[in-house]
Amino acid sequence: GNSVTQMEGPVTLSEEAFLTINCTYTATGYPSLFWYVQYPGEGLQLLLKATKADDKGSNKGFEATYRKETTSFHLEKGSVQVSDSAVYFCALDYGGSQGNLIFGKGTKLSVKP
Amino acid sequence: DTGVSQDPRHKITKRGQNVTFRCDPISEHNRLYWYRQTLGQGPEFLTYFQNEAQLEKSRLLSDRFSAERPKGSFSTLEIQRTEQGDSAMYLCASSLTSGNTDTQYFGPGTRLTVL
Asked: Which residues of chain A, if any, have pLDDT below 70?
């Protein structure tokens, strides 16, 4: 079946460090891929998305590239800030009549000053 | 604020009671989704509507769970005869269908605690 696997957390980094959160997926066909972020005490927010192979999604300094050959959508940021501390979720969606998102378990990121 | 809203934000109930949650989507969005999120896990899909039609409900966790969207605007999720295992965050999301990919926007969630 369709699934998303994320690297286990928590991840603790110092401010200005480089961030990578790995995400791989198992799916038939060509899903769209998403990263959502959940800040403490808040709801899920869309961070970025990519709808086809080799697309790069980017927002707020975060980037992820849809790699069909490795079935991956790793999240990266060159220099993290304390305000990036949150839980990050990778998700896939077939769209159309399928409807739902399939989420990974989430990766908690803590950034220390 | 014109985002997705949910009410209540928190609900504490005793085992065996019925609870109902409300979701108001972004006004022009035609799709509405319900998810459940337990501690340390990603959201798990429950059901969704396109306008007033419930297009997928096989993922509802048991027959104690039901959802409605009678006029294609707000939606309610009801859990009958609650159990302690129902304790979780219940999330609502909405989207506007466009092409093959919808972007879902989430509300703040309703946290349910069953004692």
From this structure: 95-99
